[in-house]
Amino acid sequence: PQPAPADATPATLRVVPAEVIAPAGEPVSFEAWLFDDKGRFIRKEKAEWALEGLSGSISADGTLTTPAATTAGKVSGTVGDLTASAPARLFGPLPWSFDFEDGTIPRHWIGAGRRFDVAELGGSQRLHKPPLKTGLSRSSIFVGPPDMKGYTVEADVLGTKKGRRMPDMGVINQGYTLDVMGRHQKLQIRTWAAHLEKSVDVPFPVEADTWSRARLRVDVDGEKGTVRGTVWKKGDPEPGEWSITYEDPIVVQKGAPGIYGDSPIDVYYDNVTVKVNE
User: Fold this and answer.
1) Three-state SS string across 213-239, please?
2) What predicted TM-score, i.e. pTM, was given to this entire model?
3) What pairing do the DSSP bridges indicate for beta strands 20-23 and 82-91?
4) Whole-angstrom distance, CA of residue 168 vs CA of residue 158
5) pLDDT tens for residues 97-140?
6) How many alpha carbons fall within 13 Å on the CB side of residue 15?
7) 181: helix, strand or coil
8) How confident is the model over 224-233, as pLDDT tens digits?
9) Stretches in the chain below the pLDDT threshold 70
């Protein structure tokens, strides 16, 4: 940017980079930039740095150092009476696992907001998608960065039943959703719900108030890819074969792992794992 006139009045302070998504354990450098009241860049400034929620430390020159484990929070810089902050999510290596027994949703997850909470069910704490009073019932949570590939995501899922209503629920891997569709009693793999020409369905008996395990894997071979899903009742032996397979001639190359739900009634999730493809 072009510097503002020398007599410009500082009005805002920005921390650069404005948002960080990076591997945990690798240093990240921050700077404090001053802007005038017209939004014009003035100069870089030496700031006093602080961390909010992040594990690790930040040096006087703005270098953030964290352990090699997932952490999320904010980096703030102060110059005089001006303070600005930037969110940061730094991810440790796979495998990851989440069981919600501490009663909280991980801070680095994106999309949970007010649409999910943690609730007790069957003597344990579970991730819970309650009915919404207003707005769309469909929601997704993303638990990792968007440049991931070559992994398998799994979760326990349980849908309730009210009258004839049953939920859709499942997991997300690299731009693909494995949807356990209670009302339609089937499984579906898709990339985009608005364009189901890139999807595949198979019949599947979905039982209400019963835990099932859902697994989704994506394998990339050049421009093509194979997406495989398996769902089975908790406590039963794992199937020897995949429940559903989709061959995509133009595969999604990268994408974040996640959790999916679409329901006007209660849905529960537990024991979410993400691991490197074996």
Assistant:
1) EEEEEEEEECCEEEEEEEEEECCCCCC
2) 0.92
3) parallel
4) 10
5) 999 999 999 999 999 988 999 999 999 999 999 998 777 889 99
6) 28
7) strand
8) 999 999 999 9
9) 1-8
The residue among 197, 159, 166, 193 whose CA lies nearest residue 178 is: 193
H runs (alpha helix) in 120-205: none
Q: What single string gives the DSSP state of each residue in 242-271?
A: -SEEEEESS-------EEEEE-SS-EEEEE
Compute the distance between CA of residue 81 and CA of residue 97 in angstroms, rounded to an integer: 42
The predicted pLDDT at position 11 comes to: 85
| Beta-bridge partners for 277 | none
Cα 186 to Cα 167: distance, rounded to the nearest angstrom: 12
* β-strands 267-276, 186-190 pairing: unpaired
Tens of pLDDT, residue by residue over 202-229, are 999 999 999 999 999 999 999 999 999 9
Q: Is the dihedral of CA 128, 134, 140, 141 positive or negative?
A: negative
**Backbone dihedral angles phi then psi of residue 270, each to the nearest 5 degrees:** -160, 165
> b or e along 201-210 (b: 16 or more beta carbons within 10 Å of the residue's beta carbon)?
beebebeeee
C-alpha distances in Å from residue 75, one per residue of 18, 59, 109, 244, 267: 10, 11, 18, 44, 35
